[in-house]
Amino acid sequence: MTPRRQALRAPDKLVFLLSLVPYLIEQQVIGVDEAAAHFGVPEEQIREAVRLIAMSGLPGDTGTYQSNDLFDIDWDAFEDGDEIVIVHHVAIDEAPRLAAREAAALIAGLQYLAALPENADSTALASLMEKLRAGASATPSGLAIAEPAADASLTSIRAAITGGRQLEFDYLNALGEGGRRRADPLRILSQDADWYLQAFCHTRDDVRNFRVDRMSALVVTDEPVADHTGLEVPETLFQGSSSDLDVVVDVAAEALPLLADYLADSSTAQIGDRLRVTLRLAHVHGLKRLVAGLPGLVTVVAPAEARTAVADWASAGLRGYEETSVPEG
């Protein structure tokens, strides 16, 4: 026995119709079955919506509906061929359009997303950019998106992951220690503006996270990756160890979710308008970028070496501004 379909609530029905009408106009001619598959609803729901659309419109100056004030469909095609053809529509063309600069800004953001490894060859993003260009009030300005320094490395890393090949590269860690590494790439992760390679490092004989902008002389070798069946790969970038440093900080409540990967435990204490929590970090150097990425939202409380490291790093940055001369005129 087929379960009875639950009726849509009025707000849901309105949202559905607002999505269906532009879709039908764009398609020009489409079968009921295709429309139902596109929206993931029963075919009868599409037919009911089409009948409702045909009774919808915008009243004229007199406040009454004339023949041209209502949607109209090709009833012969609908009733005989189960096809939907809107032959007259109203009000849709009066919808506000994006300004050219607004569309350009959105297109620039989509271009950046399309350049990311996980979005390579995305037809959905390309289609959306074309719709923004076509729907803008004027032709959007062309914007060039600067290629991040890590992009070339990300391309090679992605090729290595796809091809199942080992990588060799020079790596400089946060402590300033460098060395040549050989690794089996597992996956690419991102945190804020930084990209990381999660890989099985043959030098350390364990899974390690490598920040892509600290990698250089990257080579995709012909050596295939080893069989890592059963290898436990951490879900997060940060994994604790017995040598980690505990750092007490006061953080704004809205910024706490951004520190979730570094929390030593779930305990918090209310200190004024801030929450006092304990972070667990591999070393104090990682704290600098963490605090700098949340300006005004995180205050380091303890230990003293952590406070000193962050203060010295911030002071060095300020001195850089003071030493920079600005040419007159």
From TrEMBL:
Record keywords: Proteasome
Pfam families per record: HTH_PafC, WCX, WYL
Domain named PafC HTH: residues: 12-134
Gene Ontology cellular component list: proteasome complex
PROSITE patterns reported in the protein's UniProt record: WYL
InterPro entries: CBASS_pafABC_assoc_protein, PafC-like, PafC_HTH, WCX_dom, WYL_dom
Domain named WYL: residues: 154-219
Domain WCX as annotated: residue spans: 245-316
Protein's name in the database: Proteasome accessory factor C
Species: Agromyces terreus
Species classification: Bacteria, Bacillati, Actinomycetota, Actinomycetes, Micrococcales
